[in-house]
Structures are given as structure tokens and as C-alpha cells.
Amino acid sequence: MNVNEVVARLAGDILGAPVHPNDHVNMSQSSNDVFPSAIHISACLAVEHTLRPALSHLAQTIEQRATELNDVVKTGRTHLMDAMPVRMGQELGAWAFQVREGDARVASALQRLRTLPQGGTAVGTGINAPADFGPRVAHALSEKTGFDFSSMDNYFAGLASQDAAVELSGQLKTVAVSVMKIANDLRWMNSGPLAGLGEISLPALQPGSSIMPGKVNPVIPESVAMVCTQVVGNDASITLAGQSGNFQLNVMLPLIAYNLLQSIEILSNACRVLADKAIAGFAVNDAAIAAALQRNPILVTALNHVIGYEQGAAIAKQAYAERRPLLEVAMEVTGMDEAELRRLLDPAALTGGGIPGRD
After folding, report:
1. Residue 151: what pLDDT?
2. Is 55 part of a structural domain of the chain?
3. CB neighbours of 10 closer than 8 A, spacing ≥ 6?
């Protein structure tokens, strides 16, 4: 006995009259409009109740650490090579901005998901359904869920395509790309502790490697990276499934539903774990950061407006080749006053942008 038959039997017992699963219970609906509507509804609720709170939590955690660490000045890196200094607060602030933007992108996609194809029945014409059936269902669902659902303007498109689900999946992929970037930055900053960057120490969540005692791996960022990779893969499948609507029906709705809801769930969990088990608890290795900053020959960029690019490049190359402090080599080559050089090469001041040494 299927669900419709059970409902019909119970309804018949209550009403004292026979209720047929097809003639009554399923009279104004079809799996062809119920399934795509269910995808929209479930995705909306999962995003609103699970993913967006997780993204907010991640952003807030990053922002809190950015405030705490705003005075930490470190070597910036482009192409994985030493670059001009940045404040750790600026670095983390970029992460938080990415997460906030991702949340906004996801929220914008919900506008299309809130419209439901319910009422289109078999092929989009609404055969066997009252004219106001779709709007009435949307209204009832809105009252039940507190979410502002509405009836689609074009049922044919709602049955034949899954464009809104494809759009949301694409935004989830974008969020996953951002979160994976953050996870990989953490891995690099934690690398070492002696032969890598060693800028931070992530919380130790394992006793060590299975064969190398004392080796603590960045398991949280690595697990988050795997989640993000899965979300990207899910999006590829959803994209292909979305274009598989032939004429009046898409036949890959189960795949779309499964992958979309899985992406929302695992991405939500990953954001919270990354926030609570990695970002909230990492420690800054001030000595390592200061040592690298002091040796950074690229600080000579701040002298471009005083000595020119060519002489600056020569000073940087000499300082690097001789493993000497940039300040020492700059004094020797330019003959400039030490106090003036210290003022121009002050790493903290250089994080403010503009032309060094000028108000």
C-alpha cells in the first residue's frame, strides 16, 4: 500500500466516505510539479536555517580574530613570494569579506527558489487543478514555514528546468571556493613549524602522525578543503542535470535534490568546524613573523620615490644575497640617515598605503 492509498483510507474513515488516492488526494497535483517544488522548498529552508547561520558564524569568528590581531604586522605574499607587509587584521578581514559576500550571493539566489511550480500539474498547463491552486499552496506553505513562497509566473519553465537550483548550486560553489582559499591560507601559515612559514600554530587535535611522533597535521583545514571539493563536484553534476530537461520535464530531479541538499549540509558543517576548531584557536608565532619581516628585502619598495626602482632593486638583491638586514644595506648604498630610513621602512606604517613618509 503506497502513501496516497494510506492517506485515502484514513480520510475515508474520517469523512465516512471513500476517498480515492488519484481521484481525490492527487487530483490537483502531479509528481511533475511536486518534485521540483519540493526541491525549491527544502533548499530554501536548508539555506536559511542551516547555511546562512553557519556563514554568519564563520564571518563573525574571523572578524573577532581580525580585531584581536590587527596590530600584528607580517610579510605579505604574492606568487607565494615575499611582498610588502600587511597587518594580520587586513589579511583576515579579506577572508571575512569573502564569507559575507558569499552569504549575500546565496541570499540573492533564494529569490528565484521562493517561486514554486506547484499548480502546473503534468506538463505545465495546470490540467485537473483549479486556477488558484498554485497560489493557495504557496500561501499555505508560507504560513506553515514562515518563508515567503509564491507561485511561479510560468509553470512550464518550472517543470522543464531547474535553473533556480542550478543558480544556487553555483553560488554554493563560489562560497566553497572562498572557504577553500581560507583553509589553504591557514595550512600555509601553519606550515613547518621549522621548515615552513610557521606564522601560526593551529590547535592540535591529534596526538601526531601515525608514524612520525609529534607531527601535528592541519586536519581541520584539510577536511574543509575536501568538503569544498565535493561541493564543486556536486555543482558540476547539478549543472549537467539542469540542462537535461527535455521538453516539458527534467528527468534528473533526484540527482539535483540529493547533491544540492548535500552541498548545503556539508558546507554548513565545514564552516562551523573551520571557525570553532581552527580560526578561533590558532596562536600567532610572533617571533617567526618578526624575523621574516626583518629579513624581507621587498620593503625597499617603500624607497622607490626617493632612490628610484633600479637602485632599490639592487639593494634588495644585495641584501638577499648577503643575508643582511635591508636597513643595513640601504644605509651603506644610499648614505641616507638611519633614522630617516627607519621611518620610511617602518613595516606598520607601510600597511596604510599611500606614499611612504608623506602625510
Report:
1. 98
2. yes
3. none
Average pLDDT over every residue of 52-56: 98
Asked if the model's pLDDT at residue 176 lies above 70, the reply is: yes
In this structure, are residues 216 and 208 in contact, taking their beta carbons and an 8 Å threshold? yes
Question: Tell me, what's the pLDDT at 26?
Answer: 80
In this model, does residue 21 exceed pLDDT 80? no
Question: In the predicted model, is pLDDT for residue 17 greater than 90?
Answer: no
Strands (E), the chain: 73-78, 81-87, 115-116, 150-151, 200-201, 245-246, 249-250, 283-284
Residues 110 and 240 in one domain: yes
Whether residue 359 lies inside any domain: the answer is: no
pLDDT digits (tens, 9 = 90+) for 76-113: 999 999 999 999 999 999 999 999 999 999 999 999 99
Q: 222: part of which helix (H) or strand (E)?
A: helix 219-242
Q: Which is the catalytic residue, given 209, 263, 268, 305?
A: 209
Mean pLDDT, rounded, of the chain: 93
- Mark whether 185 and 255 lie in a shared domain: yes
Angle at 39 between CA 36 and CA 40, to 5 degrees: 90
What letter represents residue 21's amino acid? P
What does the block give as the cell for 227? Answer: 568538503
Residue 79 bears catalytic tag = yes
Structural domain for 305, as ranges: 296-350
Strand partners, 283: 201
* 255 sits in which H/E element: helix 253-274
Marked catalytic residue, from 30, 79, 108, 237: 79
Would you say the C-alpha torsion 150, 153, 154, 160 has a positive or negative sign? negative
Residue 18 confidence (pLDDT): 75
In this structure, the strands spanning 73-78 and 150-151 are: unpaired
| Start-to-end Cα distance in the chain | 81
Amino acid code (one letter) for 282: F
Annotated active-site residue 209? The verdict is yes
Q: Are 267 and 234 in contact (CB under 8 A)?
A: no
Main-chain phi, psi angles of 298, to 5 degrees: -70, -10
